[in-house]
What we know:
Helices cover 36% and strands 26% of the residues.
Amino acid sequence: MNIVVAKGLTKDYNGLRAVNGVDFEIRRGECFGFLGPNGAGKTTVMRVLYCFIEPTSGDIEVFGINVKDKPALIKSQLGVMPQDENLDLELSVIENLIVYARYFDMPKRKAMSVANELLSYVELSGKARANIKSLSGGMKRSLLLARALLNNPAILILDEPTTGLDPHTRQAVWKKLNDLKARETTLILTTHYMEEADRLCDRVAIMDQGKIIAIDSPGHLKEMHGGNLEEVYLKLTGRPLED
């Protein structure tokens, strides 16, 4: 069953076409990745999907609802882990979660309980009262993941979830995401890491200059075109996949 359907999705910024008439469907419970370099249009697609910006033309439905019709209803069932570390530096680790829970009208007592459970899940219980500025980059990414899970979302959106992390921390984040996938949470992510797409994604949409060039499983793409995903990208687009 499809949980997201996009048809002819287009987004322009000041006369520049960031996303150019893309079509895709995302199945409930799968991990779907948008693969491409910076500027390919991946993040713009995600921002339309989680109702941060409206499309210029075309349609995208989430849970069968058009994003232009009931954005608040859609947002209530989404979790978003952004690429930017937009944590509140004036609040402690646990306060960041409790304050954010207000967006979902969560009573303070429940928010405290859920926040403690999530900090345990991402292995930050020992940092609950710590200042955000004292956290490592990996800890901040883990906290962003915990925040994205506060409302027990049906869809978890991850924009470059492991950018800037060391290999050990990246592996730890992947483990958590695979665990969520096993619980049938739908994961939608953007990435330019080949191994990340291979390890997490059931299917990937290869994007270049605002267009989707191909959609398939990483394994089938490699089988059809030969080589690893980076070589597949080069063959399909004529350009290397660079950060």
